[in-house]
Structure formats: structure tokens, C-alpha cells
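REQUEST FORM: STRUCTURE PREDICTION
Request ID: SP-0412
Submitted by: Lab K.M.
Chain count: 1
Length (residues): 221
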Amino acid sequence: MNADRSASWSLACVLWMLAGASQAVEFQVLDQDGEPLPGLVLMVDGVPASSSGPYVMDQVDRRFVPRVLAVPTGSEVTFPNSDDVRHHVYSFSPAKTFELSLFSGTDAPPVTLGQAGVVVLGCNIHDSMVGYILVTDSPQYAVSDAQGKVQLPDLPAGERPVSWWHPQLVEQPPQALGELDLSTLQTLKLPISYTPVVESHDHSPSLLRRYGPGADDTYGY
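STATUS: Completed
RESULT:
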């Protein structure tokens, strides 16, 4: 092989490797009014999987933490209780119906989520607690942070099918955006008007409201 052909071959190899190389991608998602959109799940298809767990939905200060969790189909999710009161977590969602009776610490068994869809969580003791688990078949996904920023740490270059979901859709399926090259985006505006979550500071549980003063202390809820 002469020098010119060797140089051309080397350049072609470099370009091929660059085309297939993965890269970290960060951009911001905005609602239709241009406001940051936290708690949005962005899903990318046609790429290698990059998430392997563990998947944890904690309970802290009588809130689900994180409020929105995304996991691949078939995942096992643990529900530790970091509060000093017991919780009774449940879901009636079609994607997964389950109930974790009164528990504290790490007493609750893990829950396997074998069907793609939205799992809305509640606590039978504390009515203000609401959380969401999006179970997805997409190999890569990320949840936007409090400032609406999305980070995809291992995304191949090129256009890929992209979809999104947000708690304001409740149990509607993810919405398709078509094929996008996320590596070229700085912002992504979506057709939803974000309503900020008003965190409740009322820590009186349902049991206390049902059975009167003293129930909370008596039963450790």
C-alpha cells in the first residue's frame, strides 16, 4: 500500500470511529412558555442501553424522592423509607398494581416492574405523597433536573427516535418527537405549560384525620 492510499485509509478509519463514537450530551428542556421543565423524561431509541441500576424510590420528609423515576422494563425497584414514620405505598396503575403495607427502614420487599407504562405512587397514610415511575422499553433515557437540564452521558452521534413524558400527562403514554440529533440541541421546547408542584407542609396523616388526635402518635405513622 503506497503512502497516499495509507493516509486515505487512516483518515477513513478515524472518520468512521468519530461517527460511531459516543458522547455526553446536555441541553435544557423548556415548556411552551419558555420556562424550565423539571421532571421530564426524555427517551432515545436506536442506541445501546446505558443504564444498569440500582433503581431506588425513597421516602424522605413524607415525599417520594425522586418525584419522577425512570427505569427500564423488567427492573427491580426498592422502596427504602428514610422517614421516622411508617409509610404504606401503593399503586393502582395498569402498568403495575401493588401494595407495600406499613413499613419502615428497608423492610419493604423490592417491586419488579415488568410492563412498560406509568406507575403512579401514593401513600395510604399520607395523602399528599405522590410519585411517578416511568417504565420504558427505550434503551437510553434521562430525567430533567430542577432547572430543566437533561444529561445523556453516553449517546451516539446522529439522528435517533426521541420521545418524552411528564407527570402532567398523568398516565398517558410517552409522546413522540420524531428523529432528532440531540447533540446539536441547546434547548428543546415542548408543547406543555408547566405547573409548579406545591409541596405540602401539612404532615398530618390520613389516619389522624380519620380517627382523630392521638392516632398518629399511637400507631407510629
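NOTES: The CA atoms of residues 127 and 206 lie 6 Å apart.
Reviewed by: T.R.
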